[in-house]
Design goal:
Blueprint lengths: L1 E5 L1 H8 L4 H18 L3 E7 L3 E2 L7 E2 L4 H5 L4 H10 L4 E6 L3 E3 L10 E4 L2 E4 L4 H17 L4 E4 L14 H8 L6 H23 L4 E4 L5 H6 L5 H6 L6 E2 L14 H9 L8 E2 L1 E3 L15 H9 L3 H10 L7 E4 L16 H12 L5
Parallel strand pairs: 1-2, 1-14, 2-5, 3-4, 5-9, 9-10, 10-11, 11-12, 13-14
Antiparallel strand pairs: 6-8, 7-8
Helix pairs in contact: 2-4, 5-7, 12-13
């Protein structure tokens, strides 16, 4: 697997205000470039904030593609066709719980606010049914090769989260701690989505791309990734976001990858590694813990190349996914606090080893 995430931010830039012909050309351009880079899969953002980048009866259209959809153009349908015609897989990337800053996009009443953003309540049966119906619609109507959830489960800041549902669970005789109860809510959705995907179309897989640090998955966003990896019936693949350099003090890239390899994993679950293409050339990786780690991305221009080769040397790993598409062309980006020259050389070095 050599995949790249194409985020809704990138889609907005490509598709907002465009004619159908321009939108087709933009999507074709993505697929042509991905093929040229040596990639073989595209992780295409189809729902970021309870909005749809495709023709949906469940969710409102994303603002940037509303006019295109009204004109009869379906970005996802075209992207699937454009990918497959070039020998690329296309996985539909969904943020299941995020509603965003505009609560009017909520499609059921079971949601809460955290830090100015709205999220569907993972404990809600209605919210789970809504999310599952959205996945059903994608897999049934589009020949996607997979569906992927990323690392947004419970929000990180839960200080203002209503505990009414948990209190009701306790008053009804529930014995689980609030953490175990939240993880159970999320795991229930994951298992149901897995079953739904496999019931509709054989060959379509379901994967999750969680945070790169397992403790954060378990204790911060209440995602029991270890369970999903260990037991069949939750996921087909896991792709932790190992967005660290080799000199990171506590999460050095190779050591972090080894920690994921060491986790018990059912034979049906594939392990991919998410790579931080978006960090190339940055002047300071502020959470790296050491001066060498903070400066690593500015002082080295082969981190992505070494990361890919490192993953490739480990038979337990089935490939990589890069975040994200636009960083394959750093010469075209305008960013602060980074070295464009280093970033350009990073991509040049990476491309020399991209094709196996």
């Amino acid at each position: 697997m050599r995949a790249v995430w194409v985020s809704y931010i990138e889609l907005n830039s490509m598709l907002n205000g465009k004619t159908v012909a321009q939108a087709k050309a933009a999507i074709d351009g993505v697929m042509v470039n991905c093929k040229a880079y040596g990639l073989n899969a595209v992780i295409f953002h189809v729902r970021a904030n309870s909005d749809a980048y495709y023709k949906s009866k469940v969710f409102s259209p994303a603002a940037s593609v509303k006019n295109l959809l009204n004109a009869g153009f379906d970005p996802l349908a075209y992207a699937v066709e454009a990918a497959h015609s070039r020998g690329l897989e296309l996985h539909a990337w969904v943020n299941p719980y995020r509603i965003g800053t505009n609560k009017s996009f909520a499609k059921c009443n079971d949601y809460f606010e955290s830090d100015g953003r709205y999220y569907y309540n993972p404990a809600s049966d209605d919210a789970q049914k809504l999310i599952i119906s959205g996945v059903d619609e994608i897999v049934r109507n589009y020949k996607t090769d997979g569906v992927q959830f990323d690392d947004y489960f419970y929000p990180s800041n839960l200080k203002n989260l209503p505990n009414d549902d948990y209190n009701k669970y306790k008053s009804d005789g529930g014995k689980m701690s609030v953490g175990d109860w939240r993880r159970t809510n999320v795991s229930k959705l994951i298992a149901t989505v897995y079953k739904k995907v496999h019931s509709i179309r054989s060959g379509c897989v379901f994967g999750v791309s969680p945070r790169g640090v397992q403790d954060q998955n378990y204790d911060v966003v209440y995602a029991d990734v270890a369970l999903w990896m260990k037991e069949k019936g939750y996921i087909d693949y896991i792709c932790p976001q190992v967005y660290f350099g080799f000199l990171h003090k506590t999460q050095a890239f190779d050591k972090n990858v080894d920690s994921w390899i060491a986790m018990p994993r059912h034979s049906s679950v594939r392990l991919y590694i998410g790579l931080a293409l978006h960090k190339i050339g940055i002047l300071s990786d502020q959470y790296a813990g050491t001066n060498a780690g903070k400066a690593e991305w500015a002082q080295h221009n082969d981190i992505m190349k070494r990361s890919l080769l490192s993953v490739r040397s480990k038979p337990e790993c089935g490939g990589v996914m890069f975040f994200s598409y636009r960083y394959f062309t750093p010469a075209s980006l305008t960013q602060s606090s980074w070295s464009r020259d280093v970033a350009i050389r990073e991509v040049e070095n990476l491309l020399t080893v991209m094709k196996p």
